[in-house]
Amino acid sequence: MKKIGFIGIGKLGLDCAEVMAEKHEVRGYDIYPRTSATVKVCDIDELVNESEWIFIAVPTPHAEGYDGSVPSSHMEPRDFGHDAVIDAINKVNTHAHSSKKVVLISTVLPGTTRKHFVPLLDTKHQFLYNPYLIAMGSVKWDMVNPEMIMIGTEDGDWNGIAGELKDLYDTVMQNNPRYEIGTWDECEAIKIFYNTFISAKVGLVNMVQDFAMKIGNINVDVVTDALARSTMRIMGPKYMTAGMGDAGACHPRDNIALRWLAQEYDIGYDFFDTVMHAREIQAKNLAKFMVDQSSNLPIAIHGKAYKPDVPYCIGSYSTLVGHYIKELGHPVVYLDPMADDPADVVSEIHGPHVVLWAHNRKITYEYTGDQLDTQPYCAIPTGSIIVDPWRKLRQTADGITVIHYGNTRNPT
Ligand SMILES: NC(=O)c1ccc[n+]([C@@H]2O[C@H](COP(=O)([O-])OP(=O)(O)OC[C@H]3O[C@@H](n4cnc5c(N)ncnc54)[C@H](O)[C@@H]3O)[C@@H](O)[C@H]2O)c1
């Protein structure tokens, strides 16, 4: 049993600490009051001195308006904020009476650890960069079933502390994961380009959806399913269903921040701007389609959080579509019992509406083995039109029309 501390027990840190606590003695420290049944929440001095391993899972926030829930590709590129990580490192320096193994989980851009963090840490400590591929709604499952575990060291060497961290993870992992060892900078790059590859992939399949809508006689699923089965040259089938755009607290903002890195290193082009610009115009096209369906019907978006079963509206594609619907002069309301942003959220709608079926929990979570479909968040009034960008809903009741956005061969 190892003694482990987590600095920052928020959305990511607390669940990860609790997973570790199933096998180890785990403490947590946060600047906000937190509680846990299995992690001992304590002060920073106890955490630092009672832990051999110290994981840092504090926020690396983006500036206001840079999360992707409203258009941002016209704005000046910015790096993430580093203050909380620097504060955590300073606290380790101040409180530690002996050498510690410090592991940073928080997402940062390539080059950040070497440039901004390691120079601050007392040389008696060791430092690893170890970002997680974890999604909200399935944090604990993702933690123990990762596609890979990235461990970044100063020189990309397996020996010493990287191997020790692997041994620690082997005690909790369920899927015998692949380990990728690299320099701090390589692991920063693996993590952030993993996220942005997904954004680019979603942007591409949603582009096929846009063409299907414009050209006609095309069901986007026929096209993308064929591409997804082309495993000789194109990668695996995940994220190959056109629908709502890439969203959430991580993916959009990672692209937005990489725009800053492309400028900083004078790469000469801004691929990330293109990905984000495409995402915004895809949302605008969907908004325009909703407005075109509505004539005089009001518009509702079924799902405001960036995905089903979580409250987080940060980086939400629903609100991006809603933004463009409003820009086109139409009010919009959201149906979402969990949404953490109550603006324009209603619990029911009266009379016929045009409803965007933004959430599809089966598509979102089926990789974890969960197959449950999204249930309606309220009764859908007769005379409504449901626009399903995932093309899975069947005609639900008489008097309700279902349109499969992206299928112009047989759209209902
Ligand atoms: N949430 C995810 O799905 C996810 C996935 C992978 C990576 N990440 C990364 O992990 C990091 C944390 O993300 P999160 O979603 O858990 O954020 P969060 O805001 O939910 O949690 C961060 C926690 O750190 C605490 N905190 C802030 N400043 C602190 C300080 N100086 N000292 C101690 N505690 C402090 C906050 O009170 C909060 O509880 C971010 O860099 C994020 O990009 C998040």
What would you note in describing this structure?
- This protein is α/β, with parallel strands linked by helices.
- Helix content is 35%, strand content 14%.
- It has helices spanning 13-21, 44-50, 83-95, 112-117, 139-144, 161-170, 184-215, 220-228, 251-264, 271-294, 317-327, 361-365, and strands spanning 3-7, 25-29, 40-41, 53-56, 101-104, 126-129, 148-153, 178-183, 299-302, 332-335, 345-346, 354-357, 385-388, 401-404.
- A 6-stranded parallel beta sheet has the order 3-2-1-4-5-6, with helices on both faces. A 6-stranded parallel beta sheet has the order 11-10-9-12-13-14, with helices on one face.
- The chain is elongated, with a radius of gyration of 23 Å.
- The relative contact order is 0.10.
- It binds nicotinamide-adenine-dinucleotide (NAD).
- The site of nicotinamide-adenine-dinucleotide has 26 residues, from helix 3.
- Nicotinamide-adenine-dinucleotide is lined by residues 7-13, 30-32, 57-60, 84, 87-88, 105-107, 132, 134-136, 249-250.
Structural class: alpha/beta
Which consecutive residue ranges, at least 5 long each, have pLDDT under 50?
none
Please provide the ordered H/E string of secondary-structure elements: EHEEHEHEHEHEHEHHHHEHEEEHEE
Largest sheet: 6 strands, parallel
Instruction: Report the span from N to C terminus.
Output: 57 Å
Strand arrangement across the biggest beta sheet: 3-2-1-4-5-6
Ligand kinds: nicotinamide-adenine-dinucleotide
Measured by DSSP, the beta-strand proportion falls in 5-15%
Give the % helix: 25-40%
